[in-house]
TrEMBL record:
Alphabetized Pfam families for the sequence: PALP (PF00291)
GO biological process: D-serine biosynthetic process
Protein name, UniProt field: Pyridoxal-5'-phosphate-dependent protein beta subunit
Source organism: Fibrisoma limi BUZ 3
Family classification: Belongs to the serine/threonine dehydratase family.
Alphabetical list of SUPFAM superfamilies matching this protein: Tryptophan synthase beta subunit-like PLP-dependent enzymes
Signal peptide: none
Cofactor field: pyridoxal 5'-phosphate
Key words of the record: Lyase, Pyridoxal phosphate
Lyase is among the record's keywords: yes
GO molecular function, one term: L-serine ammonia-lyase activity
UniProt xrefs under CDD domains: Thr-dehyd (cd01562)
Domain Tryptophan synthase beta chain-like PALP: 23-314
């Protein structure tokens, strides 16, 4: 394997290894689970990397910690801020608590109450805003003016991407060394996890293909992937509330270089996959998390007989609003 590690971004294999060393004391090395019934239904061998068991209940703890742990002492004095509808908000709040600094989290008022409560539970201040990207960014700008806090973007940040890359790194180290995965799948929203997954796979398992999955009701990444520039979704209507953001130029560049395809699935297919995991694996996953499995089940002819890794991204569900 070539020692050349450079890619579209400045993130190298050493960047990802350093991130892993940095965050390791603060995260779980999450288990990888399999399920005979789901394998039979998919006609493939699936290995689920269970980030629903991660700190804060989602993979986002990895990127949030990697970014916050790299803040300078000067930055830390004024705390940290971000905007997020949920899991990244919790990640930054958790990371800030770990290092003992204030966190100011701008969240859309429509974000699930369970996620707002969790952010406050980690000691962060929640600033509610209208559910638009403009309102979220304006909210952060006001916070930075008021407090001097450092901004950690949910995905458009190499520190965050390198942190998210550690999930696929663990998956490959634990189950893809001797017998590499044919495909690793991850959902795509802003593209931080997908970028990190694609980079870890590129460096550590170069024969493995990376494929993304996206809801039809937030299908911007597939358009951006095709056109080569950041596109907006034609319409937004999906149960997968964690995947509503568009890509950034940074994540799009990595994805176009290292991801083979982006598949879309309907909300009905997402709910069916989510329910299958709840019923058969006896674990809680959120709708966004079920999107890659939904894509495998929809395209089972394409994946037949293959060894697949799937990042199960999180389990932060509002139990009062279950879709089944």
């Amino acid at each position: 394997m070539s020692n050349v590690q450079y890619t579209t971004t400045g993130i190298t294999l050493d960047t990802i290894r350093d991130a892993h060393d940095r965050i390791r004391p603060h995260i779980h090395r999450t288990p990888v689970l399999t399920n005979h019934t789901i394998n039979e239904r998919a006609g493939a061998e699936l290995f689920f990397k269970c980030e629903n068991f991660q700190k804060i209940g989602a993979f986002k703890a990895r990127g949030g910690l990697n970014a916050v742990l790299q803040l300078t002492p000067d930055d830390r004095r004024f705390g940290v801020t971000t905007h997020s509808s949920g899991n990244h908000a919790q990640a930054i709040a958790y990371a800030a608590r770990q290092v003992g600094i204030p966190a100011y989290i701008v969240m859309p008022r429509t974000a699930p109450q369970v996620k707002k409560d969790a952010v406050r539970g980690y000691g962060a201040e929640v600033i509610e805003c209208e559910p638009t990207l403009d309102a979220r960014e304006e909210g952060v700008r006001v916070v930075m003016e008021r407090t001097g806090a450092a901004m950690v973007h949910p995905f458009d940040d190499d520190r965050v991407i390198a942190g998210q890359a550690t999930a696929a790194k663990e998956l490959i180290e634990d189950y893809g060394q001797d017998n590499p995965f044919d495909v690793i799948l991850a959902p795509v929203g802003g593209g931080g996890l997908l970028s990190g997954t694609a980079l870890s796979t590129h460096f550590l398992s170069p024969t493995t293909t990376v494929i993304a999955a996206e809801p039809e009701g937030a299908a911007d990444a597939v358009l951006s992937f095709q056109s080569g520039q950041v596109e907006k979704a034609p319409y937004i209507k999906t149960i997968a509330d964690g995947l509503l953001t568009t890509l950034s130029d940074r994540t799009l560049a990595i994805i176009r270089e290292h991801v083979s395809d982006i598949l879309t699935v309907s909300d009905e297919e997402i709910v069916a996959a989510m329910r299958l995991v709840w019923e058969r694996m006896k674990i809680i996953i959120e709708p966004s998390c079920a999107v890659p499995l939904a894509a495998v089940l929809k395209h089972n002819d394409r994946f037949a007989g293959q060894k697949l890794g799937i990042i199960l991204t999180g389990g932060n569900v509002d139990l009062g609003k279950l879709p089944f």
